[in-house]
């Protein structure tokens, strides 16, 4: 019976349909649980009635997602003060994580970040990497590598206590700092969660500036169409201080 057919039934017929008795059956082994709504003789012979049956396999509950491991680095996001300095703001967050300090607008000037009046506003990966290299960091820039491998790299870096700069399509093109990774378990697809120190998270009311996103959604948006001059996927930057530092603890 379609929804429209059900809609045009008389009030009495609808009441009869939805107040039918229930029968509950258990499998002795506990493997299957069924709820069947029994249908007695119904006067509307011209309509095909639904079976109102649903079967739940209890064994499937064992494969429902649950956390496997969770690493959250103790990091507070610095918020950008203009619409084009997400990159410098993300670097300030990275500097603070390694107990260093920086001024986002000064960094933007030194890197050559461009405002929205330019054809390609913001900051490209090479400019970010060059500034970090000149300011005491060992830098690795990834671009165009496979999505699964790149996401695995980020997870491994975070689990090793290192944050990762990422550039994705949020806001049309946006830098953030990956600071946490939570693994889930599900046989069909991934239910992992990525935590980002987002320079624009003030719009979401996050006190520490940390947002979280399902990794499937993130990887589908892990690209840039407008600001890097060409379509680019899976951009990330790992920057590690050259001199020994005391990193902040994990949460």
What does this structure look like?
With 251 residues, the chain is an alpha+beta fold. The chain has two domains: 3-63, no CATH class; 69-241, Cathepsin B, Chain A (Alpha-Beta Complex), CATH 3.90.70.10. The protein contains seven helices and twelve strands. Helix 3 packs across helix 4. The longest helix has 13 residues, at 147-159. The protein is globular, with a radius of gyration of 27 Å. The model is unreliable at 1-65 (pLDDT under 50).
Please give a quick description of this structure.
Helices cover 25% and strands 25% of the residues. With 251 residues, it is of the alpha+beta class.
CATH topology of the largest domain: Cathepsin B, Chain A
Q: Level of helix content?
A: 10-25%
Specify the CATH class of the largest domain.
Alpha Beta
Q: What Rg, in angstroms, do the CA atoms define?
A: 27 Å
Strand content: 15-25%
Q: Give a count of the beta strands, DSSP E runs of length 2 or more.
A: 12
Please, what is the average pLDDT? 76
> Could you spell the SSE succession in H and E letters?
HHEEEEHHHEHEEEEHEEE
Number of helices: 7
N-to-C span: 54 Å
Tell the overall outline. globular
């Amino acid at each position: 019976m379609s929804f429209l057919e059900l809609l045009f039934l008389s009030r009495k017929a609808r009441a009869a349909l939805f107040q039918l008795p229930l029968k509950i059956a258990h499998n002795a082994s506990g493997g299957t649980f069924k709820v069947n709504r029994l249908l007695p003789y119904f006067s509307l012979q011209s309509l095909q009635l639904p079976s109102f049956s649903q079967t739940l396999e209890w064994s499937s509950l064992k494969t429902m997602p649950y956390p496997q491991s969770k690493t959250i680095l103790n990091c507070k996001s610095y918020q950008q003060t203009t619409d084009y300095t997400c990159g410098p703001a993300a670097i300030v967050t990275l500097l603070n994580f390694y107990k260093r300090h920086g001024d986002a607008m000064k960094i933007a000037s030194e890197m050559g970040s461009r405002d929205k009046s330019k054809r390609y506003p913001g900051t490209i990966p090479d400019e970010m990497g060059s500034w970090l290299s000149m300011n005491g960091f060992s830098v690795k820039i990834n671009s165009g590598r496979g999505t699964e491998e790149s996401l695995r790299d980020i997870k491994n870096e975070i689990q090793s206590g290192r944050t990762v700069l990422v550039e994705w399509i949020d806001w049309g093109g946006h830098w953030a700092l990956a600071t946490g990774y939570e693994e889930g378990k599900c046989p069909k697809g991934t239910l992992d969660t990525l935590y980002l120190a987002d320079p624009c998270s003030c719009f979401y009311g996050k006190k520490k500036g940390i947002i979280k996103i399902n990794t499937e959604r993130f990887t589908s948006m892990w690209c840039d169409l407008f600001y890097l001059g060409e379509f680019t996927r899976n951009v990330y930057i790992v920057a590690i201080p050259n001199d020994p530092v005391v990193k902040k603890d994990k949460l």
